[in-house]
Design brief:
alpha/beta; Rossmann fold; six-stranded mixed sheet; about 45% helix; globular; binds pyridoxal-5'-phosphate
């Protein structure tokens, strides 16, 4: 399968090139040239298949031409070493829990898949070359990428994060790992970390010295595998007899997650419609209402993984729907909530149902609660475990949030990090010595 750029000015790329490069030469995002519809028999029988079996069928449609069946199966099965259950919250609202992976957030799925696919291509080249993944993080991305790539041969990961601006729970998930993971603590803010990474990708000396790549949600190997759990959610709801008018609500920031769901729909997944739930960063919500896309600086909220003022994957959604605003509105509606509303929702769901949402999932729940039509059943994505936002959630519900054993284990580890100024020269010298 080949990939084209949403900006239309870069050469067509193979899967391998799209995965290794991440972003196209014209700064556009790669899109698969074809989206294969899956056969009717697959959907007729889907409730009898395992998560891994479903995911392999979906993966085969995108990657099967470039990766041999046995290897692809191993990549998919090894990625999905945890469940993504649909849990009942009310009679008409279900939570798709995506926090059962190693770092308790949905990004584990894409990060683990990408690490394994990249390793597959490195082995195939078989020239012993090492790839260096640079990732800037404000929290969740760094932990998912670091853990997804942990111990994967031939790949070194550098996680750049702003000193003192990442919560201790998040920080320990990428600073205690060791092995092929290096945490770089930058004396600056997130934007400084991102600038260091961008400068590194553009630096001729560094590129001559080492093979560099990125692992953000722009990468096709990170965003396409997210489609797996939408098919699996459908299978679970179908098994329960609840899939006839299924609405899926996705708490959205950079829009990679919901974009993979829209790819699923193009493959025939019978989801009636989608809702993109936003926090106060409502650029997409405004686009749906006005037809004009106007990025702006992000504002800080308690659902901070969605604090995005210019969602990268909007370009993919726009391309997928041929820039047709009416067609986009026919499939997706929007919602936007301020911090007070998010807090109110976390409290209300807990009191009324006993279910504890994290701040992102709470946006999803509320959009379904307000937006479901009679006869519809909604599934929202619980994108992270509430304990990842322990302080925020505890202050809202006025009681303790238990930390799962997996998360606690990171907190017992020893922190190792390299301190760095925000000057590119210093970072460059550091990388040249590696
Ligand atoms: C990254 C993230 C999101 C946003 O996902 P996008 O794919 O960027 O839209 C939502 N919730 C959590 C917990 C996240 O980590």
């Amino acid at each position: 399968m080949n990939f084209y750029s949403t900006n239309g000015k870069a050469p067509i790329a193979s899967l391998e090139k799209a995965v290794v490069k991440g972003l196209a030469e014209d700064k556009g995002l790669y899109m698969p040239e074809r989206i294969k519809a899956l056969p009717k028999e697959f959907f007729d029988n889907i409730e009898n298949l395992s998560f891994q079996e479903i995911a392999y069928t979906v993966a085969d449609a995108f990657f099967g031409e470039d990766v041999d069946a046995e290897s692809l199966k191993a990549i998919v099965y090894d990625t999905l070493q945890f469940d993504c259950p649909c849990v009942k919250v009310t009679d008409t609202i279900y939570s798709l829990e995506l926090f059962h992976g190693p770092t308790l957030a949905f990004k584990d799925v894409g990060a683990r898949f990408m690490a394994r696919l990249l390793q597959y291509f490195l082995k195939k080249e078989n020239n012993g070359s090492e790839v260096n993944v640079l990732v800037a993080t404000s929290g969740d991305t760094g932990s998912a990428v670091a853990n997804g790539f942990l111990g994967v041969d031939g790949i070194r990961v550098y996680v750049l994060y702003p000193k003192g601006k990442v919560s201790p729970i998040q920080e320990c998930q990428f600073t205690t790992l060791g092995k092929n993971i290096t945490a770089v603590e930058v004396d600056g803010v997130f934007d400084d970390c991102q600038a260091l990474v961008k400068n590194a990708f553009m630096d001729a000396d560094l590129n001559a010295h080492m093979k560099l790549t990125s692992a953000n949600s722009i990468n096709v190997a990170r965003f396409l595998p997210q489609a797996f759990y939408y098919f699996y959610a459908y299978a679970q709801m179908k098994k329960a007899g609840l899939a006839d008018q299924m609405v899926v609500c996705v708490p959205s920031g950079n829009f990679g997650n919901i974009c993979s769901a829209l790819f699923g729909k193009k493959m025939g997944l019978p989801i009636k419609r989608f809702i993109a739930a936003n926090n106060a960063n409502d650029i997409f919500f405004k686009y749906l209402q006005t037809g004009s896309y106007e990025p702006k600086a992000s504002v800080q909220t308690i659902a901070n993984a969605m604090d995005v003022g210019d969602p990268s994957n909007f370009a993919r959604i726009y391309d997928l729907y041929n820039k047709d605003h009416a067609a986009i509105c026919a499939d997706i509606s929007g919602a936007t909530y301020k911090d007070e509303q998010i807090a109110e929702t976390i409290k209300e769901v807990k009191t009324e149902t006993g279910y504890l949402c994290d701040p992102h999932g709470a946006c999803g729940y509320r959009a379904l609660k307000e937006g479901l039509q009679p006869g519809e059943v909604g599934v929202f994505l619980e994108t992270a475990h509430p304990a990842k936002f322990k302080d925020t959630v505890e202050s809202i519900i006025n009681s303790d949030v238990e930390i799962p054993a997996k998360l606690a284990a990171f907190m017992n580890g020893t922190k190792q990090s390299v301190e760095m100024s925000k000057e590119f020269g210093e970072f460059k010298q550091f990388l040249l010595k590696q």
